[in-house]
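Quick one, tokens below. Sequence please?
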């Protein structure tokens, strides 16, 4: 009885936090989604979301989030693997993570200077005879900066999964005559898939709702769901439509979390054995 009472007591702050800062804001957003710009109850916001404009916007958001996540994964996996093989892996991992502690706005503004017409990139292009290029306010600059910002969050869970991998399994695979690619495909990747899924979650979900980078780096040439929400709330003052887009964004995020949900199969097996 005392154990149950103590457990319930310690759950109270957690439940209060969840209700006040997760459940209540979501319910408030859902409530505002049923009102138009004049404050009248309506379902037109949901009808408007399924028009070609917002459907195209949704597909564009998913496309850019997919590209950012894919590029981050392609770079992060071999990087995390090499980190596990280095002598001072924790130090190298720390050096990769440290940039993520810097303010996001500050990092974004720094890339404006780097990619600008008079920045170091264009200065280098001029020096080698190529000439200045419009790098800023392009899809390339948007994706590059987004990958730079999110890649530490992709590396960390993959590194943790690789670092926990039993090297005896890899040795056994090689002893049985498996090639390096077969070993990776049949042993390493399946056993580290939880780390990959975690990385996809923490990159794809926030990439789906980017808005500040789209404005500063892409010059609003890239429009995402996050940008649309910002414009509806701050520019057109249509809180109802902004809330409706936010509702669908929340739904998309929940679906992605369900799809990429990871379960520790090893722990489940051990639990059954016990």
């Amino acid at each position: 009885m005392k154990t149950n009472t103590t457990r319930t007591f310690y759950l109270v702050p957690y439940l209060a936090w969840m209700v006040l800062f997760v459940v209540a804001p979501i319910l408030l957003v859902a409530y505002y989604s049923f009102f138009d710009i004049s404050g009248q109850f309506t379902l037109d916001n949901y009808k408007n979301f399924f028009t070609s404009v917002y459907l195209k916007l949704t597909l564009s958001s998913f496309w850019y989030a997919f590209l950012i996540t894919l590029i981050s994964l392609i770079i992060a996996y071999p990087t995390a693997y090499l980190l596990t093989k280095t002598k001072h892996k924790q130090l190298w991992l720390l050096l990769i993570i440290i940039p993520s502690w810097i303010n996001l706005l500050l990092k974004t503004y720094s890339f404006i200077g780097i990619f600008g017409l008079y920045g170091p990139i264009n200065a280098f292009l001029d020096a080698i005879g190529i000439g200045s290029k419009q790098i800023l306010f392009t899809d390339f600059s948007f994706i590059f900066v987004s990958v730079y910002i999110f890649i530490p969050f992709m590396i960390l869970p993959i590194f943790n999964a690789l670092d926990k991998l039993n090297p005896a399994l890899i040795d056994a695979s090689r002893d049985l005559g498996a090639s390096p690619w077969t070993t990776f495909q049949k042993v390493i990747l399946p056993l580290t898939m939880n780390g990959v899924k975690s990385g996809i979650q923490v990159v794809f979900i926030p990439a789906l709702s980017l808005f500040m980078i789209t404005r500063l780096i892409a010059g609003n040439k890239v429009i995402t769901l996050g940008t649309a929400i910002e414009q509806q709330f701050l520019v057109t003052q249509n809180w109802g439509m902004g809330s409706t887009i936010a509702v669908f964004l929340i739904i998309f995020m929940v679906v992605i979390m369900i799809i990429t949900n990871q379960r520790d199969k090893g722990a489940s097996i051990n639990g059954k054995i016990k």
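The domain at 33-262 is CATH 1.10.3720.10 (MetI-like fold). Residues 265-274 have pLDDT under 50 and may be disordered.
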